[in-house]
Amino acid sequence: MSEQKRVLRRRMLDLRESLPPEEARRESLAVCERLVRHPAFREGETILFYFPFRKEVDVRPAMEEAWSSGKRVGLPKADPGTKSLSFFSIRRGEPLVAGAYGIPEPSGKASAKIPPGAIDLVVVPGVAFDGRGYRLGYGGGYYDRFFSRHSGPFRRIGVAYSFQVVPTVFPEAHDQPLDGLITPSRTFSF
Ligand SMILES: Nc1nc2c(c(=O)[nH]1)N(C=O)[C@@H](CNc1ccc(C(=O)N[C@@H](CCC(=O)O)C(=O)O)cc1)CN2
Ligand SMILES: Nc1ncnc2c1ncn2[C@@H]1O[C@H](COP(=O)(O)OP(=O)(O)OP(=O)(O)O)[C@@H](O)[C@H]1O
């Protein structure tokens, strides 16, 4: 993987770590307000989120809104062996279990598995994003693999703190672009 990506990832993770908690909270709330007003959210019946860890944008207020509006809420489960993701629906208050990387995940009951064809919207986490819809993640290639295997009909919308939008994330051939990006002050469509 490119050295440029590695350097950018390190720098962006350090910046995120030093983000004051009050600012992280305020920006996360502003992102959630925009997200729940987005047509893909309003019209979506099955929406995939992520469980925020290491100071990622906290999308839990938008998950609450999805449950309140009767939508199906899904979270990823990572398989580090195959570097693949599967998504399982979870109810409000349902306990999660620490998975690979220590991220809280659904327990993985087969009956809760969400078939990719039933997904309307994927809310995508990231370490940095550019103005063309490319994203930099933790380097596992999990979302890239998921999107290259399952290309739709769902929409892919990234969520970012303002500082996470950068001029370029040095995309490579395997990088799968997003359809949209939401920051505290802007909603981009690609
Ligand atoms: N909240 C959240 N959940 C998510 C993701 C995410 O980005 N955010 N993922 C999105 O993919 C998947 C998990 N992917 C991850 C990939 C790598 C590392 C990680 O800690 N990597 C180490 C390097 C480890 C190694 O290379 O062996 C590191 O960054 O220090 C964490 C999560 C599924 N769940
Ligand atoms: N569709 C794919 N099929 C096979 N390998 C892939 C695919 N997408 C990415 N990879 C591999 O995964 C590795 C990590 O990719 P990359 O650095 O772009 O991950 P990332 O976007 O930062 O991570 P993530 O998607 O997990 O947040 C790369 O070595 C890449 O070759």
TrEMBL record:
Keywords: ATP-binding, Ligase, Magnesium, Metal-binding, Nucleotide-binding
SUPFAM superfamilies assigned: NagB/RpiA/CoA transferase-like
Record-listed E.C. numbers: 6.3.3.2
Positions of substrate binding: E56
Swiss-Prot/TrEMBL cofactor(s): Mg(2+)
Catalytic activity: (6S)-5-formyl-5,6,7,8-tetrahydrofolate + ATP = (6R)-5,10-methenyltetrahydrofolate + ADP + phosphate
Residues the entry annotates as binding ATP: K5, R6, V7, L8, R9, R135, L136, G137, Y138, G139, G140, G141, Y142, Y143
Catalytic class of the enzyme: ligase
GO aspect biological process, one term: tetrahydrofolate interconversion
GO molecular function, one term: metal ion binding
PANTHER family per the UniProt record, alphabetical: 5-FORMYLTETRAHYDROFOLATE CYCLO-LIGASE, ATPASE INHIBITOR/5-FORMYLTETRAHYDROFOLATE CYCLO-LIGASE
Family: Belongs to the 5-formyltetrahydrofolate cyclo-ligase family.
Protein name in UniProt: 5-formyltetrahydrofolate cyclo-ligase
Species in which this protein is naturally found: Planifilum fulgidum
